[in-house]
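ugh ok so i messed up the first submission bc i forgot one of the chains. this is the corrected input, ALL of the components this time, i swear. 833 residues overall. if the numbers dont match what u have on ur side tell me asap before i send this to the collaborators (the ones from the other lab, u know who)
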Amino acid sequence: MKELTISSDAPGERIFVLGNEAIARGAIEAGVQVAAAYPGTPSSEILENLAKVAKEVDMYVEWSTNEKVAFECALGASICGVRAMASMKHVGLNVAHDPLMTASHIRAKGGFVVVVADDPWAWSSQNEQDSRYVALQGNIPVLEPSSLQEAKDMTADAFKLSEEFGQMFMVRSVTRIGHGRSDIVLGKISRERRKGSFKKDPSLLVYVPRTARINKPLMLERLEKIRKAVNTMPYNKLQMADKATLGIIASGLSYGYTMEALKWLGLEDKVSILKIGTPNPLPEELITKLLKSVKEILVVEELDPFVELHVKAIAGDYNIAVKVHGKDVVSRIGELSTRGVTEAIAKLTKSKLPIDFAALDKLEQEAAPLLPLRPPALCPGCPHRGSFRAINVAAQRLAKEYGEDVEPIYPSDIGCYTLGLNPPLRAVDTTICMGGSFGLANGMARVVDAPIIAHLGDSTFFHAGIPPLINAVYNKANITMVVLDNSATAMTGFQPHPGTGYTATGDETVALKAEDIARACGVKFVEVVDPFNLKAATETVEKAMRFQGPSVLVFRAPCAMIELRDKKKAGEKVVPYHVDPDKCNPKCDACIKLLGCPAIIKQGDKAVIDALLCTGCSLCAQVCPYNAIVQE
Amino acid sequence: MVREFNILITGVGGQGVILMSELLGKAAIDDGLTVRGSEILGMAVRGGSVTSIVRVGEDVYGPLIPAGKCDIIIGMEPSEALRNAGFLSKSSLVILNTVPIIPFTVSLGQSSYPSLEQVLEKLNSITSKIIKLDAAQIAREAGSLLAANVVMLGALFGTELLPLKIATIKEAIEARFPAKVAPVNIKAFDLGYQVCQQAAK
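and heres the new structure output, hopefully the right one now
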């Protein structure tokens, strides 16, 4: 039997998938013709999986240079009448915010859906913002799945709803949806393929002031229709319990935690529950029905009090005397859990907790001091390690010329290299947003008397690094800007980008070079550097930093994971380094303390290299003052 | 009918934790069960802590195991098993690979690594049901050091606590690995199974 996949035409069959595969399947079922995205955890696998089957299912799939472009690409296709999707992580939605705020004014022709993956607890992000507020501000209806099955179903449905109401829709995922795993039942795949056509319609598409004034009331009319329709959508479900005094409103994933908590407490028949699948707009009729039937309400939702504030407003509008709880008993920080919801319900119902949570906390507190720190680290053989070592040596040398206590400033960015934050490299001083390293450096250069060397990755450079680079040239900022080019969007899983020479679907294309772009932008000092040649790299960094005016360095070497993969393919052997114990000085530790490579540990009083982890990059041999590290 | 069965797999990036949960999930579905679970990808690159969750049964809604409700923890690494002790109760079972992976933060002097006795003592204060094995040694015996994760899967089935059929997981293993290495992995599974059975006696 052929293994079922997300492109299988097998309605009714069950498959085991990652949540992002479920969302991709939803897009395939809806007959989406254009899908665009920029990678970002926890959303990347949506487009990755679509790219794998793009040709088979006749879909155009691209990695765009950033989320704004991805959004615009999908919007352009939708304007021409085909179904189109943009997917991104929550902070990517900020990048797309500009077109988003106007896009919702456009009466959608081809179904237009933006899938946004929020990241409660910021597992892989710089913050934990709640995209439902962006949707509220942008007048975008939201579907929020409680399970992977719903993630698939809602994604497919969102395109139909978008066309039915003529409005763009948002599907809000979270980490535990996108990176959840579950069985889902497949639906039917739409094979309809439309020929895109553009109809000139300035009063809908050319947003001069008059157009906004024409379309805003029309948009509000469409939203009003959706506000009524959500009351009967299957994603919202009211289960009334007899003589219940407490009602729970649970949005998205929180519904699962709530159901398990009620069962744990033995209260499943004593509490009325409203499951919310459309947080914006909310099903007002179902909410008022519930509010009128109980004395107290608990709103269970992850992150900010979005549903809670609306429920309080609805209670006020309808003059319903009911106490509404939410963030007073449920955490606003991080992910929810069955435990957290259980404790909240127990508090409100004065129920006994099912187990002794305090004893578990005590145990964890006692275990904590025993546990070693195990942060994610730059991989053995990572070129960034060499880049940071060279930057550290050159920048610290230069800083001394500014004053004995002056430290160089390292504005950094979003990517694997953010891990350079950790000791011993300590080469990351700021991380705010994509492209923010070069941007911040522009301002710092005006006010501090210290050398500034900012860095970002190759994919980040194409995403948002070019405008601040041009700014530095235009406004003559005396900073050094480094592109750490490892030929991949490595942190999110090696997606291709404009510098790699191939597209999302594996087609060959031009490979843009950061150094060419920097020169074209008018940078007068541009050099390409090998991060694995520490001596030469350090000298070049120093030259760049001494250059008056903006300078650009491109550290170029492929990601260690790619290098290993390519070597394996070519049948080449990795030759690891080892430490000659007779030459290793127990008091030195230079290899460990300067590089922080996970392949080097101390055994007894000597350094030892794990031959299974070592990639043969040679950096440790270059920093060893005793020539004790040699290749086998 | 299975109501709720919770498995947490924990280890270090590169040990094949995610693969284990994929195999278990696939097998559970082939056995007609519903599965929910989740993992943290992304920052869990090589060397970081990794956990993956597999939950089966009709009463399971959420992707996370509630505190104190884990039926089995598979610890691919001792300190990582201890890190997740808050999921255990006195009826839980721990299957522990006793081979430590000492992070570079210990070499840098930023943290220390507990002795196996310390790990076992803490785990023992919650549950006495702990099966210890040297998965690396058994994997080597099977023919590949890389198969330590499949050894642990074998041990998991050796407990006979799982609501899954052995034939189904073996099919999932055979389907997942290239024909060249599938037999090594099946052998690793069988050896893990046997070690666990002997330990239970």
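quick check: The mean pLDDT of chain B is 93. that seems consistent at least. Residues 182-200 of chain B form the longest helix (19 residues).
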